[in-house]
TrEMBL record:
Key words, A-Z: ATP-binding, Kinase, Membrane, Nucleotide-binding, Transferase, Transmembrane, Transmembrane helix
Protein name: sphingosine kinase
One BP term from GO: sphingosine biosynthetic process
Transmembrane segments: 338-355
Domain DAGKc: 12-159
GO molecular function: ATP binding; sphingosine kinase activity
UniProt keyword Nucleotide-binding present: yes
Species lineage: Eukaryota, Metazoa, Chordata, Craniata, Vertebrata
Biological source species: Neogobius melanostomus
Gene Ontology annotations for the cellular component aspect, listed alphabetically: cytoplasm; endomembrane system; membrane
UniProt-listed Enzyme Commission number(s): 2.7.1.91
InterPro entries: ATP-NAD_kinase_N, Diacylglycerol_kinase_cat_dom, Lipid_Phosphate_FormReg, NAD/diacylglycerol_kinase_sf
Amino acid sequence: MVGCKFSRSLLPRPRRLLLLVNPFSGRGQAMQWCQTHILPMIREANISYNLIQTERQNHARELIRQISLPEWDGIVIVSGDGLLHEVINGLMERPDWEQAIKTPVGILPCGSGNALAGSVNHYAGYDMCLREPLLLNCCFLLSRGGVRPMDLVSVTTSPAPNSHAAPRRVFSFLSVAWGFVSDVDIESERYRGLGSARFTLGTLVRIASLRSYKGRLSYLPPTSHTPQTPVNHLLPPLDQPLPTQDWVTIEGDFVLVLALYQSHLGADLHAAPQARFDDGLIHLTFVRAGISRATLLRLHITCRAFRLQPLSPRGTLTVDGELVPYGPLQAQVRVQTFSIYVIFIYLFIFSHWMITEYTARQVYL
Ligand SMILES: Nc1ncnc2c1ncn2[C@@H]1O[C@H](COP(=O)(O)OP(=O)(O)OP(=O)(O)O)[C@@H](O)[C@H]1O
């Protein structure tokens, strides 16, 4: 009997996951898919979990700011990219953020865009897929395990209009968009019932009446010899001029500016094939409006930081697909190789734990 207790205490405890479910993400199927696909697979993998349904915007963010993180081996978002954006920012707003951001985080795609899930699916070697096949691949990866470090990008946005607040900083894992991409993202909200097809319809509508915006885009190419020093060292405050050395500035009419740090902008949109989770780069695509629509000029470059100054009075700007105040914005990648400023999240966990536990049980039996 004593021997039995002693042996059990040596066994690793089952993994504990906090599942955060947005019941309204995508076509509103997240809870249904939990019952039919996700929970059976998690139970089968002998993982214990607590499931919380988010009740409103920023619910997850507030929760993550307060919870005791050591109780959890990982936080899994059962939703789209917007809820992951909340969770990452909740982790970074904690006083213990340096430790907190090391908490493994996973995503089980139930949203409409599912960009990060698309990137994970791609780098796991699976063919591009959507909806339940994508969810099943991600469930399988979650159960099988493996974690990867990932860069975050620190974005400074303008304060809300008529507010005297200071510029706001948010952390981004996916994208900053201005013009065509953010217009489609926000305007297609009204077709949410269509799932990912909402972006196709939104794109067709926007192409039919293509807009361009005046603006100034400055970026710091990765080849510049910048010193590796602390946070946001590449950028002066938003209201101060950029250094002239090393920076490249373009001014004119833009159809779109898209900064992406994952390979996918949606599960079926392989927009930056060269991007890797921890390449320390922002993949910047911009399309300039030419004399006619036939002369649109698309450029793709990589950089470590950029500043965008919209000069047209109205427009939409998004960070990870979420609307932010329209106005000057700047961003810089925070690379996981910085020693004290190591910023990374882990995607998908536990294979070695499950193997260890299984082996230990077999030995015990
Ligand atoms: N219970 C809720 N009610 C309303 N909004 C919520 C709720 N829970 C989370 N949200 C907010 O809903 C927004 C969209 O969520 P999410 O990104 O997860 O789904 P999605 O937009 O369908 O997917 P994707 O981002 O992949 O297109 C997020 O800004 C999130 O903060």
